[in-house]
Amino acid sequence: MSTPDPTDVHPAWLPDEAWRAIGVRRILVRGEGTLVDTVQAEVERATHRYGGAVWRNPTDVDLPSADLVLALTGAPPPDSPPAPEPGPPETSGTLASTAVATAKAQLDTATAQVGESLGAEGFVVARHAGVTVVLADAPAGLLYGLFELVRLGAAGFGPTHPVRVHRPAMARRMLDHWDNVDVHPVMGQVERGYAGGSIFWRDGRPRGDVARVTAYARLLAACGINAVSVNNVNVHATEAQLLTERLDDVAELADLLRPYAIRVHLAVTFAAPVVLGGLPTADPLDPAVRDWWAETTARVYARIPDFGGYLVKADSEGQPGPFSYGRDHADGANLLAEALAPYGGVVHWRAFVYNHRQDWRDRSTDRARAAYDHFAPLDGRFRDNVIVQVKHGPMDFQTREPVSPVIAAMPGTRLAVEFQVTQEYTGQQRHVCYLAPWWSEILRFAPWGDDGRTVADVAADGGGLVAVSNVGDDRFWTGHPLAQANLYAFGRLCWNPRLGPQAVLDEWIDLTFAPDTRVDPDLLRRTLHEIMDDSWRTYERYTAPLGVGFMVRPGHHYGPDVDGYEYTPWGTYHFADRDGVGVDRTRATGTGFTGQYPPPFAERYESVETCPDELLLFFHHVPYGHLLHSGSTVIQHIYDTHFEGVREVEAMCRRWEWLARLVDPAVHARVTERLAEQLRCAREWRDQVNAYFHRKSGIPDAHSRMLH
Ligand code: GCW
């Protein structure tokens, strides 16, 4: 692959045009610190372009009137008006000072009512007497407030509106890069990466692309991400050294991400005391091992004082862990947590632990059960700076899975929920698959019943949300330009999980597709919605049916291979025979997995009567003639959805053609090329899945279509 020209990188959701409404203002910036410096630099860049002006911490009383103020609440307001009394103050200061004082008074009233302050990252936006005011208690809040204004665009400078308070739902909003430092012989530079090389590393060294990493940091801050883990959770020999002799490489990245309020985390190997420290053991209860982690961690913080913490994949898919020493995951995680605690760091300890050397003949072992079986009994034993990081489903980022029962099983543990923005199982950024509707469904899921807490609540009270990044050195960042929307949406849902996926898509469209290229803005918006809103369900329709999962080509996981994983050790089976298909995970006759859910889901999933159609084959083995709630039989549903899915992709292709004159030609060309591949691949899925089930079942299609 040729090296991309760094000047040619797509601006994603921060094109210059998105700054126009801000860039024409006369702006006061109030406050001190690195992040306020960033705010100033950002607005200066915009005003240079669009003709506005910026003043930082002005002291003179004769300030020119400003129409945008970005201020820390602790900073003295412009020309120091008298402290506001409740209600709009009667000051004779400039309009800007009046607006700030008014916003502050409104804020005080609002926070008194809610009983909460803005916190470390919250902010308010208000508009009063022709002045827009962003106030924050802490610098990060000011930065997020600025990006909210970017989102608002001209609407942020419209008619007066009262103070609006914004606070993130999740304290930590994290992306994990599965980036290798060395190119891995099988997995390449980025494991499960579909957007070229790593933006951090190349061929065993830091890539040193300051502009690219800074641009990335801006994009992440603009959608609310505040933590990044910079190397793969499968920690190989070179990557292990990032913790010790190659710590400077990590520090360089931390320096680039810090101005955008992003903290660096590092994936470490549990065997580090052996492979890096030369100790004979990594036993978590061994005092020498504890000392090694304490000393090593002290060195990390001496070099990177705001280091976020460690991320660990242990006893999983060949990674070392505490099991080698007869210890459990609480022993392992607490060891690292103890070393991090003095500095306020956290350990993200992944719950993705299962037997990947299963005998397919063994019908009693169920991979879906594994995370719960390993972790639920440990609830209450983890230190409070341990975050158990749970994949959202019990298997592995399939197109459809139930929510992981672990999320409801560990009330005494801080949990983070892990998503996969990189589209390993959802079309690998060659297929359009807008994932926010899927994530939104998961985040709104209430495992204890409709009146109970949701997955988002559990994450918000615990360790927040994490996702595997989909970014690489591709000029569009994500390979498929429309996959940028997934990254943007993940950040926004971390900030506010109640946002509707379509509203988030609107934000992304407005920011990304600059208004002056829109001949017909409504056509562009409508068409993108038509292509993207339901694209996850379209993908589901032409791939593995009814929640059964996998059926992908082993190894690279792209394209259909119905039996590809059927007789492998990975625990990913569908058990199709001539009579039926699906995995019996009931308590009555199957693996008992349904029993890991609290009522009502233990009951709802147990019965074929109440199990939702879309998860039927995840929980039950049923005959092909089984009647779904939809009124269709399982076999006819398989045929119908596969034909329908391909038709929907054909419609996507046609719709995208209509946009030829409305979007940047380079974006248009790239998406066109990807859609052609999506269509080819969707047809392949349709024909292989339909032919497979036709041959197995011998049941013809009710509509006599070609089944091959
Ligand atoms: O889905 C699997 C992927 C592996 C990945 C693993 C994990 C980083 O195929 O490539 O390893 O999940 O989540 O650890």
TrEMBL record:
Residues 73-94 are annotated as: Disordered. Keywords: Carbohydrate metabolism, Glycosidase, Hydrolase, Polysaccharide degradation, Xylan degradation. One of its GO terms (cellular component) is extracellular region. Residues 165-477 form the Glycosyl hydrolase family 67 catalytic domain. Residues 478-705 form the Glycosyl hydrolase family 67 C-terminal domain. The keyword Membrane does not apply. Residues 75-89 have a biased composition (Pro residues). The keyword Nucleotide-binding does not apply. InterPro entries: A-glucoronidase_C_sf, GH, Glyco_hydro_67_aGlcAse, Glyco_hydro_67_C, Glyco_hydro_67_cat, Hex-like_dom2. One of its GO terms (molecular function) is alpha-glucuronidase activity. One of its GO terms (biological process) is xylan catabolic process. It comes from the Bacteria. The active site is at 317 (proton donor), 396 (proton acceptor), 424 (proton acceptor). Belongs to the glycosyl hydrolase 67 family. This is Alpha-glucuronidase.
